Amino acid sequence: MNQFLHQQATNSGVRVTVAVSPSHVHLTAGVIEQLFCDHYRLHERCRLGPTQFEAEESVSLIGPKGRITDVRVIGPPRKANQVELSRTDALKLGIDAPMRAPGDLEGTPGVLIKGPRTQVALELGVIRALPHVHMNPRDADRLGLADRDRVEVLNDPDAVRILFRDVPVRVSADYRLELHLDVDGGETAGLVSGDYVLLRKCEPSESEGIGIG
Questions:
Q1: Cis peptide before 109, with omega less than 30 degrees from 0?
Q2: Are the CB atoms for 127 and 99 separated by under 8 Å?
Q3: Which of 17, 123, 154, 198 places its Cα 20 to 30 Å from the Cα of 168?
Q4: Are 65 and 161 in a shared domain?
Q5: Are 114 and 166 contained in the same domain?
């Protein structure tokens, strides 16, 4: 019996830490060069996983109704530009950012990004990231999960209150085991970075939780 099945049988779950992230951007190497300078390399501020890091560099985002400043760049460079906003920041910018799993960028709106060198208009890539779980392949194998599986997030330690349903799992060697929320999602659930929650496979018959809208 794998760990998830055993935990379900005891009405518990797998305990993981929470990471609440303010609005941030993932950028391609080309856009980083445009915003900063030719052949530019991001400077690591703090490590977020085996390869991912919060960079020293930040940018401003400019939308139809306003701007937000000091938006942190997350490294290393990505193959596609992705801007992850909280609902509050999306409203401030005047951008109708859809709730999406990270990486699901088709049909999303764009935004103007301003750096120290110039500004770049992205045609798409702005989302409000769904609550999602990061894990590496070893953790996924241990827990009997695969990339794009779905789990429930429950309150720790009583495992009675369902905080989020239908939460996507993302598996990569670049990740560490964490539940990722934006600031608004953290406030709604009463969670901050470093808190613990419980994960388990979805049980459709159980009562509704806070949700993810």
A1: no
A2: yes
A3: 123
A4: no
A5: no
Phi, psi angle pair for 43, to nearest 5°? -105, 125
Two tokens, residue 93: 């910018």
- CATH number of the domain that 153 lies in? 2.40.40.20
Cα–Cα distances in Å, from 109 out to 59, 125, 184, 196?
Answer: 18, 6, 20, 33
Classify residue 111 by burial, with Cβ atoms within 10 Å: 0-12, 13-18, 19+.
buried
Q: What confidence tens digit (pLDDT) does each residue in 84-143 have? A: 999 999 999 999 999 999 999 999 999 999 999 999 999 999 999 999 999 999 999 999
Q: What b/e string do you get for 128-151 counting C-beta neighbours within 10 Å, with b at 16 or more?
A: bbbbbbbbbeebbeebebeeebeb
Kindly state the percentage of the chain with pLDDT values over 70. Answer: 89
Closest CA to 128 of 89, 75, 178, 74: 89
- As a whole number of angstroms, the distance between CA 20 and CA 191 comes to 8
Distance, CA of 32 to CA of 38 (rounded, Å): 9
Q: Are the CB atoms for 35 and 116 separated by under 8 Å?
A: yes
| Residue range 54-91, pLDDT digits in tens | 999 999 999 999 999 999 999 999 999 999 999 999 99
Q: Name the residue with higher pLDDT: 203 or 152.
A: 152
**Spatial separation of the C-alpha atoms in residues 213 and 132, rounded to whole Å:** 13
C-alpha–C-alpha distance, residues 43 and 50, integer Å: 16
Place of tokens 């938006």: 71
Q: What confidence tier does 158 reach under pLDDT thresholds 50, 70, 90?
A: confident
